[in-house]
Design a protein that fits this description.
The chain has twelve helices and 14 strands. By secondary structure, it is an alpha/beta fold. Helix 1 packs across helix 10, helix 6 packs across helix 7 and helix 10 runs antiparallel to helix 11. Nicotinamide-adenine-dinucleotide binds next to helix 4.
C-alpha cells in the first residue's frame, strides 16, 4: 500500500461542485483500483464559505490546505456576492490561499487533443499533438514591485508608475520548477525575458543560465525574447516544451497559448510553492475557467478542465505519471468517441451532460486496466 496522500477538495461555487463530483468519482476509482491511498477531505471556499462560515475562506480551511499534500479547487464567484466590498468577495478566498501557501509558480499547459484540433484558432497541422507547459512567475515582478502609483507632476501632467523587480532567489526558484518539470516531459526549457531592453531581464537570463550550469545541465536550455516568443507561439508552437517566464510576460503568453487549445472547459492549471525538506511542494490545482453562473445547475458543464487539473496533481504532486497519463488518455478516448459537452460540441458529435462525460471517462479507465 502506497503512503497516504492527503487531498483537500474545495468545490467552491457555481459549476465548481458539479465538476468536482466527477473528479471525486475518478479519484475514488484510482484510489481503490490502483491502491493509491488517497485521503480526500472537502471544505468550503468562495461564496459557499461566505454563506456558511462568514468568510471567503476560513482559517480552518487555510490550515487544512497548508497541511494537505495537494489542493484541488473548482471555481469561486457568482452574482449573489458581486455587491460585497472587494475585501469580502469570494475571489479573496482564492487569493488568500495563493498568498498563504506562497504559490510562486503558475503552470499552464497548452495541450491539444487530436479530436478537438479543429477548435484551435491555428491550422490543424500546427497544433496537432501540441503539448507545451508555460511556467509563469506568480508573486513578483511588475504587478507587485515598488514604487508604484499615479502621481501629479509639477507641469500639471500625471504619471503612472510600476516597477519590474526580481531578486536572484525569486528567479532561481521558479527556474528550478521549470527544469524539474522538463525532466518529467521532453527535457527542454526555453527561458523568456527581454534582456535586450530590461536590466531585470539581463539578471533573469544570467541567473537561469547559472542555475542550469550548477544543477540542471542535463536539461536543454534556450533563451528567447518575449516578443519573439509571442510570434513563435503562433508560427511554430511545437518547437516548445517548457517555457519559463516572469509574471507579466507569462500572463500574456499563457493566454495566447490557451487559444490554441479551443475551449475554456478544457484548460487545467496548477500553482506550486516551495519544496520542504522532504521535497514536498505546496500545490493548488484548478481549472482556468470560472464558476460559469450562466450554466450552473443545468448539468452541462464540461468537467474535463478539472479532471485534467487532477491529472496534473497526480503527475506533479504525487509523481504518478502513469496514472496521470491514464486519465489524459481516457479524456482523449472519450473525445475520440465523439462525446462532447455543449461548450465543445461540433457537428456530428454526441451532446452529453457533465455526469455522462464523467461516467464515460470512468468507463475508459476501466477498459485501460482490463
Ligand atoms: P467563466 O469562466 O465562469 O465563464 C465564461 C464562459 O465560459 C461562460 O459562458 C461559461 O458558461 C463558459 N464556461 C466556463 N467554464 C465552462 C465549463 N467547464 N464548461 C462549459 N462552459 C464553461 O468566466 P466569467 O463568466 O467571466 O466569470 C463568472 C464568475 O466566475 C465570476 O464571478 C468570476 O469572478 C468568477 N471567476 C472565477 C475564477 C476562479 O475561480 N479561478 C476564474 C474566472 C472567473
Amino acid at each position: 500500500m502506497a503512503a497516504t496522500k492527503k487531498i483537500l477538495m474545495l468545490p467552491g461555487d457555481g459549476i465548481g461542485p458539479e465538476v468536482m463530483t466527477e473528479v471525486r468519482r475518478v479519484a475514488d476509482w484510482l484510489s481503490d483500483k490502483r491502491g493509491l491511498g488517497f485521503e480526500i477531505e472537502e471544505a468550503l471556499v468562495g461564496g459557499a464559505a461566505i454563506d456558511a462560515e462568514g468568510a471567503p475562506v476560513s482559517d480552518a480551511t487555510v490550515a487544512k490546505a497548508m497541511a494537505a499534500d495537494a489542493v484541488l479547487l473548482g471555481a469561486v464567484g457568482g452574482e449573489k456576492w458581486d455587491s460585497l466590498p472587494f475585501a469580502q468577495k469570494p475571489e479573496r478566498g482564492l487569493l488568500r490561499l495563493r498568498k498563504d501557501m506562497e504559490l510562486f509558480a503558475n503552470l499552464r499547459p497548452a495541450l491539444v487533443f487530436d479530436p478537438l484540433v479543429e477548435a484551435s484558432s491555428l491550422k490543424p497541422e500546427l497544433v496537432s499533438g501540441l503539448d507545451i507547459m508555460i511556467v509563469r512567475e506568480l508573486t513578483g515582478g511588475i504587478y507587485f514591485g515598488d514604487p508604484r502609483g499615479i502621481e501629479d507632476m509639477p507641469d500639471g501632467q500625471r504619471r503612472g508608475i510600476n516597477t519590474q523587480v526580481y531578486t536572484t532567489s525569486e528567479i532561481r526558484r521558479v527556474a528550478a520548477v521549470a527544469f524539474e518539470l522538463a525532466r518529467k516531459r521532453s527535457n527542454r526549457v526555453c527561458s523568456v525575458e527581454k534582456s535586450n531592453v530590461m536590466e531585470s531581464g539581463v539578471l533573469w537570463r544570467e541567473e537561469v543560465t547559472k542555475l542550469h550550469g550548477e544543477q540542471y545541465s542535463d536539461v536543454e536550455l534556450s533563451h528567447m525574447y518575449a516578443d519573439n516568443c509571442a510570434m513563435q507561439l503562433v508560427r511554430r508552437p511545437k518547437q516548445f516544451d517548457v517555457i519559463v517566464t516572469d509574471n507579466l510576460f507569462g500572463d500574456i503568453l499563457s493566454d495566447e497559448a490557451a487559444m490554441m487549445t479551443g475551449s475554456l472547459g478544457m484548460l487545467p492549471s496548477a500553482s506550486l510553492g516551495g519544496a520542504d525538506a522532504s521535497g514536498r511542494r505546496k500545490a493548488l490545482y484548478e481549472p482556468v475557467h470560472g464558476s460559469a453562473p450562466d450554466i450552473t445547475g443545468q448539468g452541462i458543464a464540461n468537467p474535463l478542465a478539472t479532471l485534467l487539473s487532477f491529472a496534473m496533481m497526480l503527475r506533479y504532486s504525487f509523481d504518478l505519471g502513469a496514472e496521470a497519463g491514464m486519465v489524459e488518455q481516457a479524456a482523449q478516448n472519450v473525445l475520440a468517441r465523439g462525446l462532447r459537452t455543449a461548450d465543445i460540441a461540433q457537428e456530428g458529435t454526441t451532446r452529453v451532460s457533465t455526469q455522462e462525460m464523467g461516467r464515460a471517462l470512468l468507463e475508459e479507465l476501466h477498459h485501460s486496466v482490463v
